[in-house]
Backbone:
């Protein structure tokens, strides 16, 4: 399944087929989305349809686990309220979820420093021991040493940046830090600006749980630099309370990894290449500046 856009007529037909009580609600296109295309349905709902090869499995995982977790999370999330099975109209599952009001942070960055406590409260609630059957992820919640062979490739996007050496040193410190020795904790796994929403400069919701998994919380704690305004990271860790020096070192490494990914995908967008997101490049550079400050 390649990445492309579905039309509203298909969405309307699918609703009439499986959820006819929702079929006449207003349907509006929504910009953004990576694995799933999204529409706003009426005032309170969203339709999410998979459009990449891996998206149906991610959506199934989200359908299974997000309702289990959402009740304890202090921020709005797109918890599924209806699921749909493959049919003659569409060969994959799709979801009707709660709409999370706000602007994505790659368009409207978080500017309020007190979002640090909001983010810490969210992650404190999420980061609980996960059951044995919780999903694993080959690139989230794992020791950074397992990804070391990719470092050179990541750094091509900032090859001429004078801060490249300092950024690599942070990654090496993350590799050298003691690994997580606690139980695997629930992780969002993909906390970057396009996956949170903002209202009036404040973190107001967390979306896209397609990378939900269990492992080392440092992956999520990188959000202290990826999402929050400059200078708010220490305030975040004071509120989170459970991160020791080694965990912070690993989190800084994950923040560099995330910055490089954002810069690379953003650059592709600026150059008009497939899969690029131009708003991600400035978000990536801002992340790198904050983690190096």
Residues:
């Amino acid at each position: 399944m390649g990445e492309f856009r579905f039309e509203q007529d298909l969405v309307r037909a699918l609703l009439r087929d499986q959820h006819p009580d929702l079929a006449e609600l207003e349907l509006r296109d929504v910009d953004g989305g990576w694995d799933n295309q999204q529409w706003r349905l009426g005032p309170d709902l969203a339709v999410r349809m998979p459009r990449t090869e891996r998206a149906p499995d991610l959506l199934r995982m989200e359908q299974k686990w997000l309702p289990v977790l959402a009740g304890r999370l202090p921020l709005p999330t797109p918890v599924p309220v209806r699921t749909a099975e493959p049919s003659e109209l569409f060969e994959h599952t799709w979801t009707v979820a709660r709409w999370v009001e706000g602007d994505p942070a790659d368009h409207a960055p978080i500017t309020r420093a007190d979002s640090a406590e909001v983010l810490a409260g969210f992650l404190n609630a999420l980061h609980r021991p996960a059951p044995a059957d919780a999903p694993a992820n080959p690139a989230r919640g794992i020791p950074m040493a397992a990804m070391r062979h990719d470092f050179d490739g990541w750094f091509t996007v900032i090859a001429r940046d004078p801060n490249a050496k300092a950024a690599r040193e942070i990654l090496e410190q993350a590799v050298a830090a003691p690994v997580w020795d606690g139980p695997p904790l629930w992780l969002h796994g993909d906390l970057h600006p396009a996956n949170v929403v903002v209202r009036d400069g404040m973190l107001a919701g967390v979306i896209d749980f397609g990378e939900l998994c269990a492992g080392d919380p440092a992956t999520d704690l990188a959000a202290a630099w990826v999402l929050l305004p400059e200078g708010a990271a220490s305030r975040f860790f004071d509120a989170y309370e459970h991160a020791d020096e080694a965990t912070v070192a690993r989190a800084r490494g994950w923040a560099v990894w995330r910055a490089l990914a954002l810069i690379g995908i953003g650059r592709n967008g600026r150059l008009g290449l497939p899969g690029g997101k131009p708003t991600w490049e400035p978000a990536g550079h801002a992340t790198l500046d904050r983690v190096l400050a």
